[in-house]
Amino acid sequence: MNLHVKKEKKMEDIRKIPLNLQLFADEEAETEVDQTNVDAEKETEKTFTQDEVNKIVQDRLAKEKAKNEKAQEEAKKLAKMNAEQKNQYMVEQLQKELEEYKTKEAKNDMIKEANSMLKDNDITLPDEVVAMLIGDNAEDTKVCVDSFSKAFKTAVERAVNEKLKGKTPKQKSVAGLTREDILSVKDRQERQCLIKENEELFM
């Protein structure tokens, strides 16, 4: 009997546990939404033919193979060299890097100088554009910057003049009316309209 009472008590406790049925309903709705999202993604994904996939894979493999071959060649060169040759090779590599650095530094200096020359002419451009004006040396750069400045100013002046031309505004005026005629109109609203239409008479 004791066992029977314990079972009933457990059943009552279980019945007291609130069931959130809405929680289960939401999961079904989310599953449906997820399924439609997956279907939509499948529709928008680009499909590739086997030939296209093969070509992409081959291209990537070729690039990686070229990198590996170059690294292997360097390793073979180093393996064949004795200590003195290795040191000489390293010195050559460092000199090459130094030259590249110097070239890059010189280009940056020329970009700064070109920017300065452009600012003297009231022209401000991003470094990427200024880099296109850089020549092999300072003289070439100066010639390029000067001709660009001239062309730029001419183009701006032409564009401003074109905008300023415009059309002459049409004047709304009632033919033959003078200031006195307008002021002598008795109706206040009509007089104000005429004044507004003929503002040039009241300036």
Helices, strands, pairings?
Layout: H1 2-16, H2 21-44, H3 50-80, H4 83-120, H5 127-131, H6 138-165, H7 179-183, H8 188-197
Helix pairs in contact: 4-6
Coiled coil: 54-114
Protein name: Phage capsid protein
Region (Disordered): 30-49
List keywords for this structure.
203 residues, mainly alpha, flat
Question: What features would you describe in this structure?
Answer:
The mean pLDDT is 79. With 203 residues, the protein is mainly α. The chain is flat. The N and C termini lie far apart (113 Å). It is built from eight helices and no strands. The chain has a domain at 79-164. Helix 4 (83-120) packs parallel to helix 6 (138-165). Keywords: Coiled coil.
Structural class by secondary-structure content: mainly alpha
Strand content: under 5%
Return the string of H and E elements. HHHHHHHH
Q: Low-confidence segments, ≥5 residues, pLDDT <50?
A: none
- Morphology: flat
Number of strands: 0
What portion of residues is helical? over 70%
Count of DSSP-assigned helices: 8
State the end-to-end distance.
113 Å
Rg measurement, Å: 42 Å
Biggest sheet character: none
The pLDDT mean sits at 79
Pfam families: DUF4355 (PF14265)
Organism: Finegoldia magna (Peptostreptococcus magnus)
InterPro entries: Gp46
Protein name: Phage capsid protein
